């Protein structure tokens, strides 16, 4: 086991009506607030009015940046930072999902520096050195951005999607009211569950085998997503299901499960380039890639991890032969994505074709090798994409 430092300081307000504490929490950081949000779901759900009611009670001055896209664009970061600079913004309030929160993290950074093109943070040309405080109100259980310090942005001109991180960007506080996710569509709920599942699997397959405690917690979270994802699809206002998914999304991706391990992921960097090429929803891309990636990586050395997953998470009979268990495990993962969540199982079904595979693979590994669980060079990634076509 590695040595590690545990520090996850985001303050969480979890549960129904926690929004009542929003104004007081924001006031700790100042009066001038940039409210960021996506394409309008917060207006349709009535959340927008609730935010303004809090602002009125606490005499906050709200400025706005709406229209942040799923697969958020770097141009939105520029726009948000400009509003912050022009209006002496003290704190950014992101209301939405991973896209709005990720974008807001880099608005917070760019608001306080002179970096002209925030894409430079993502290509190593500029460093995040300081940031405005960020508070989030989460409206969809998926990315985990509400409790971590990473973000993924799309460069619309270059058709690239990259991630970067810095502890300065971790939200100061996040409001997690599961009832706010009742209005998330079936499709987005399914994609969110697939994303949480993938975060857990990426860590599970890469974590050193000796961290027994973290492996068992990871399995408990996987079981939670497998149980409650389909319930949330059938009963959108099932509080228990929405609450379990929401808290799982945060814990799957806040760093706790990695215990300081510098874990390299596999499916995520590939998926980000699928999204960059055709604006695919992140969780859907992961659902298509993950089972084929598991098939590609299965060999005599990696076999034990498939068995561990199959027996402990999918309750496959441990007395069966290891290879049988491994194949059954992959089938269970497919069943979860395609039967339980109803997601598509091939790239052609979502409009991504062979002609783009070379570019996607090159961008995913940046011409090098993804040094994850099973190292993947460009050719290996192209092979996996072919298996997904
Ligand atoms: O834009 P609005 O109108 O709000 O609609 C959104 C959007 O269309 C909708 N939605 C969200 N909450 C809703 C709702 N619709 C109705 N009712 C609600 N309560 O859902 C759609 C998707 O929103 P988005 O923010 O894109 O979802 P998600 O949380 O899945 O975020 C995806 C982004 O996060 C990145 C992904 O790459 C992607 O860009 N990720 C960020 C990570 C991180 N920071 O750690 C890790 C992840 O692996 C991921 O890469
Ligand atoms: Zn993800």
Characterization of this structure:
With 389 residues, this protein is an alpha/beta fold. The protein has 14 helices and 10 strands. Strands 1-8-5-4-2-3 form a 6-stranded parallel beta sheet, with helices on both faces. Strands 6-7 form a two-stranded antiparallel sheet. A two-stranded antiparallel sheet has the order 9-10. A hairpin with a 4-residue loop joins strand 6 and strand 7. The longest helix has 23 residues. The chain is globular. 5,6-dihydroxy-NADP (NZQ) binds next to helix 2, helix 5, strand 6, helix 6 and helix 9.
Mean pLDDT: 97
Radius of gyration, taken over Cα atoms and rounded to an integer in Å: 20 Å
Task: Indicate the CATH class of the largest domain.
Answer: Mainly Alpha
Question: What proportion of the residues form beta strands (DSSP E)?
Answer: 5-15%
Name of the CATH architecture of the largest domain: Up-down Bundle
| Helix and strand composition category | alpha/beta
Low-confidence stretches: none
- The CATH superfamily of the largest domain bears the name Dehydroquinate synthase-like - alpha domain
The strands making up the biggest β-sheet line up spatially as 1-8-5-4-2-3
Largest sheet, strands/sense/barrel: 6 strands, parallel
Q: Please give the number of β-strands.
A: 10
- Tell me the helix content: 40-55%
